[in-house]
Amino acid sequence: MHQLWLMRPGAPPRSLSLFADDTPVIAFDLDRSASARAVTVEPDGGSIRPTSHPIVQLALKSVGFGE
User: Fold this and answer.
1) In a structure prediction context, what are the per-residue pLDDT tens digits for the chain, which is 67 residues long?
2) In the beta sheet, which residues pair with residue 39?
3) What is the chain's Cα-based Rg?
4) What is the DSSP letter of 21?
5) What whole-number distance in Å separates Cα of residue 34 and Cα of residue 9?
6) How far is Cα 14 from Cα 33, in angstroms, rounded to an integer?
7) What string of DSSP letters covers 46-57?
8) 3-state secondary structure of 62
9) Whether pTM exceeds 0.85
C-alpha cells in the first residue's frame, strides 16, 4: 500500500490518500504552506505518520506552492 503525504515546514506530514501500485491519485486541500508531496510504502490501512523514507517526493514550489 502507498500513502500520499502533504509536507509543510514546521508541521507533521498530513495524509492525503492511500492507493495501490498504479492507481491514479488526485490530491485536494493543498494549502500555500505546502512545500512538497511525498509517497511512502505503508501497511494495509495506512499509518498516522510516515513509517519509511519517501520513495518519491515532489517539491511544490515550481507549481506556485511552498516558500
Assistant:
1) 999 999 988 999 999 999 987 778 777 667 777 889 999 999 999 999 999 999 999 888 755 555 5
2) 4, 56
3) 11
4) T
5) 7
6) 12
7) --SS--S--SEE
8) helix
9) no
**Pairwise CA distance, residues 59 & 65, whole Å:** 9
Structural domain spans, the chain:
2-25+32-63
Q: What span, in angstroms and rounded, lies between the C-alpha atoms of 40 and 66? A: 20
Question: What secondary structure letter does DSSP report for 55?
Answer: S
What DSSP designation does 60 have?
Answer: S
- Which residue is listed with cell 495524509? 15
Euclidean distance between CA atoms 60 and 38, whole angstroms: 10
Whole-angstrom Cα distance, residue 41 to residue 1? 6
Phi, psi of 13 (to 5 degrees): -60, 145
Could you report how far apart the first and last alpha carbons of the chain are, in Å? 30
